[in-house]
Write a structure and sequence with these properties.
about 350 residues; mainly alpha; two-stranded antiparallel ribbon; 14 helices; about 0% strand; globular; binds zinc ion
Length: about 350
């Protein structure tokens, strides 16, 4: 139904979306509006950017990573975000529209393209500022619920899972797993085991991927975290000891159980999502304004050992979205061997 070169269109649209994601990654953690000003500007000289500055990837390469107006260096991150987003869109369009083993599913192509875009924004804000913006998490949840509403209207079998629409079940699963880990970690080890942004993102991942694939994505995230965590420890051993940060960790009090329970109830009822439209409600429930930038750090000290769990969670979700077919058949084969053996 779709010609083979469809993925090239996806690549190009994805790179343009990546250009927009750079705006999201820059502005949301700083409490700035995405839509105002509607044009992009250079962070160095605030000069308004025009078409020659805005061609994805190519502008950065042609200008050799410098602003055309003030000559300030522009981080390679801008080009990387555009390239990664473009590559992911191309992969999604290949997997859902024009690849050899696909029926051509435009709804899935649109939903997964938007989903991986939100995950890219989450990865880069988390890496740069240790923040996953509420807006990004809310977007994922609403995307999943909206897509499921359409599949219910189309009468597709995956839209329902027992008595619940699948995306609601998925959101509950994602929230439940991550919040449960946070709660147990706090209860048993008196430690903050999971960031609140991770819990909210898992809820959105569940809403889009539905329960089974959401749990599979968490498995991929844990595996990625283990591999890179061990790598980080190995690299750290070679560096001279400073011994400073271990004491830092000890001085910070873990969150109270009451706060974890209360915030968890808030996430379950989506107060953080509704609260984006009603900041007063958000502030009453969580004790802070959703648009406050109190926790914002412009240049947090970035160490390899400090990589938060959020990027792994997002990378796992991207993996599950792209490789749903192979993962599902592997799971089914595993379950069948289980039944055959007993
Ligand atoms: Zn400039």
């Amino acid at each position: 139904m779709f010609p083979e070169w469809t993925w090239i269109v996806g690549l190009w649209i994805g790179m343009c979306v990546g250009s927009f994601l750079n705006v999201v990654v820059y502005r949301l953690p700083r409490g700035l509006s995405i839509w105002q000003p509607v044009y992009s500007f250079c962070p160095g000289c605030k000069h308004r950017l025009t078409l020659p500055d805005l061609v994805p990837v190519f502008s950065w390469l042609v200008l050799r990573g410098r602003c055309r107006h003030c000559g300030n260096p522009i981080g390679a991150r801008y080009m990387v975000v555009e390239l990664v987003t473009g590559a992911l869109w191309a992969a999604v369009w290949w997997a859902t529209l024009s690849g050899p083993h696909t029926m051509g599913d435009p709804l899935k192509a649109v939903v997964l393209s938007l989903f991986v875009s939100a995950l890219v924004a989450a990865i880069f804000t988390d890496l740069a500022h240790y923040i996953i913006p509420d807006q990004v998490n809310a977007f994922m949840l609403l995307l999943g619920l909206g897509a499921n509403a359409v599949t219910i209207a189309q009468g597709r079998p995956e839209a329902w899972l027992g008595p619940l629409p699948s995306s609601v079940a998925g959101a509950l699963t994602g929230f439940g797993v991550l919040w449960g880990i946070a709660f147990l970690g706090r209860l048993l080890f008196r430690k903050d085991a999971m960031g609140h942004g991770d819990i909210k993102m898992a809820r959105g991942i569940g809403a889009v991927l539905l329960p089974t694939m959401a749990v599979a994505s968490f498995g991929i995230a844990v595996a990625l975290g283990a591999v890179f965590g061990l790598l980080a420890i190995a690299l750290r051993k070679r560096q001279p000891q400073d011994g400073g940060d271990e004491e830092d960790e000890g001085t910070e009090e873990p969150e109270t159980l009451g706060s974890l329970l209360w915030c968890g109830l808030g996430y379950l009822l989506c107060v953080d999502v509704l609260g984006l439209a009603a900041p007063k409600v958000y502030e009453k429930w969580f004790g802070e304004n959703p648009y406050s930038t109190e926790e914002f750090e412009d240049e947090p000290r970035v160490e390899l050992t400090m990589i938060p769990f959020g990027p792994y969670l997002a990378a796992g979700a991207i993996g599950a979205a792209l490789f749903e077919g192979p993962i599902r058949s592997a799971l089914e084969a595993y379950l069948r061997s289980f039944q055959g053996g007993s």
